[in-house]
TrEMBL record, chains A, B:
Database matches in PANTHER family: KETIMINE REDUCTASE MU-CRYSTALLIN
UniProt-listed Pfam families: OCD_Mu_crystall
Name this protein carries in UniProt: Ornithine cyclodeaminase
InterPro entries: NAD(P)-bd_dom_sf, ODC_Mu_crystall, ODC_N
Native species: Kocuria atrinae
NCBIfam families: PRK07589.1 (NF005762)
Superkingdom of this protein's organism: Bacteria
């Protein structure tokens, strides 16, 4: 039987552990796997694009376990009452190929995206960072805020969203948790005093939600929303003033902010920073960008973190997904109560 | 909520409808989708190979629905009590990207592989075919036999397998259903009087389970087991005497019998036979080969056939796989019963 964590149990897990507790634990899983980067099978995600959005499969394996995530991105969904992004994922045993664990990943993706941003931000933002400017306050915003508080103690948020109701929602969700959230009337105001700028908007277009003149020296830009072909958030000029850190260059050049620039634009693979093969931030004035697109290895980490944390608890149920006849060559035995016709 | 057909309900469905009844219905779905071949997104499956076997993802879409299948192939599994092939699959709504239907596909893949062979065999084998030679009597064998009886009335089977117990199993499963099954002591004997030869063995190697001198004019070869890189069953010389029909050439050249021959070896895409854009069998003496590897569109057809046939019955349950907050921009609302810390 395959272990299963459905939506209600995922919500219960988050309530039990707390987002910040999960963040601290998940960052350890991420760091462990990013450190083993070279051991993993890595391919750009497999995308099926339509005018409505995209459906993607994101597989990877470390040679012992295999994972994949199904995820969609449909920017017009919220206007129709649906989530922009929904996801689910699977772990499998490489040794025999059997799926071992299935989980909802809409919430888990929100957690892993934020945890990845925090893992990177902790190493690239100035250590004295206190204030985050956030452009976009949709589904991912609370998770980013909690991740950066868990990793760096950030509690001051200056927020701008084109939808005032989305800013109200962010205040409503975060202020009771001790954040100081200021809703701004422009992105200029949201980033004016920021040590860290998080861009996380949903529109599938080459937008400039952050322009070059808004970016001051020393800032760390956590660029989350530019994550598929034709979807970017930063004015290209910013990239030329900055050091750009990526997950998997082959995928980021297709999907990230760097899709706007030449193919050989220099980037730093973040796993090399983790393993001391590349420097992170080198000066107070340097502008660092995490060009986050979300890579399969982070889903692998998140699924294993969830599985290990819920093992043996009532948060896991079981589903019968794998046919197991007594004689493995006799699959037909499962159905051979058919009536004879002879 | 996502509709779900698990293993026990899949077995119940097959018992309720009968394999042959399902075959007749599923062939209609396959013919409908193969006829619309040009409308589909088509990519070779995405494979993760290890020394133990392979794990694959097989996505496709007709622009309205999307499907993918997870499937493994682990030839050493039966010796350890596991299935060689297990699978599950998903249908999703392209319009909003939500997964709508999840099903076990170990049994369903056995059905769709056999149904595809039958759809093709019905058009390529001589119409007067009466006797099938089968090399390999593993998990897929009963399904192939029932598919060819449903499509062409074949009831005489001459079988050879290196494992005598597997032949006993086939006789035990099929004779009560009215088949005349003869277990042979060599592949020579199994194919000597065959109008149709089905090869379906599991060993992941470049084998010759069928050699050139065994193949007489006029036969149709249903070559099922050669379906991944390094796994073939036919002596290459057979290919040069035959007309080879394939599902999706880009995938078959990597995975099928034709991986043994030059890259521009001529093949006929079967969907063109269905749509009268290419001839099928052109003479009594022609040797036809269906170089079956299994393509995503057949899984799409099989999933839709199963879904439609079980809709509104107790064979479907529901699983909570997609987070649906009341406000789609407020994913955090699902977890915000967190205790305040302020």
């Amino acid at each position: 039987m395959t272990q299963f964590v459905d939506v209600p149990n995922m919500a219960r897990w988050i309530q039990r552990e707390g987002v910040e507790g999960i963040m601290r634990n998940m960052v350890k899983y991420l760091e462990n796997d990013f450190t083993r980067w070279e051991k993993f099978d890595k391919i750009p995600r497999v995308a099926s694009h339509t005018p409505f959005g995209v459906i993607e499969l994101m597989p990877t394996s470390d040679g012992e376990e295999y994972s994949f995530k199904y995820v969609n991105g449909h920017p017009f969904n919220p206007a129709r009452g649906y989530q922009t992004v929904t996801a689910f994922g699977v772990l499998a045993d490489v040794d025999n190929g059997y799926p071992t664990f299935l989980a909802e990943m809409t919430l888990l993706t929100a957690l892993r995206t934020a945890a990845t941003s925090a893992m990177v931000g902790k190493r690239l933002a100035r250590p004295d960072s206190e204030r985050m400017g956030m452009i976009g306050s949709g589904s991912q915003a609370e998770f980013q805020a909690l991740a950066f508080r868990a990793a760096m103690g950030i509690e001051d948020l200056d927020v701008y969203d084109v939808d005032p109701a989305a800013m109200d929602k962010l205040k409503r969700n975060l202020e009771p948790l001790g954040f100081r959230v200021t809703a701004m009337s422009s992105s200029d105001e949201a980033v004016a005093n920021a040590d860290i700028i998080t861009t996380c908007t949903a529109d599938k277009a080459q937008n400039t939600v952050l322009s070059d003149k808004q970016v001051k020296p020393g800032v760390h830009i956590n660029a989350v929303g530019g994550d598929c072909p034709g979807k970017t958030e930063l004015e290209a000029a910013i990239l030329y003033r900055s050091t750009v850190f990526v997950e998997f260059p082959e995928q980021t050049r297709i999907e990230g902010e760097i899709q706007q620039v030449e193919e050989d634009f220099p980037v730093v693979e973040f796993w090399k920073v983790l393993t001391d093969q590349a420097p992170g931030r080198t000066s107070e004035e340097e502008i660092t960008i995490f060009d986050s697109v979300g890579f399969a290895i982070a889903d692998f980490s998140a699924l294993r973190c969830l599985r290990d944390s819920t093992n043996g608890t009532e948060l896991q149920t079981y589903i019968d997904l794998v046919a197991e006849p007594e004689d493995p060559k006799d699959l037909f035995s499962l159905v051979n109560s058919l009536k004879p016709v002879g």
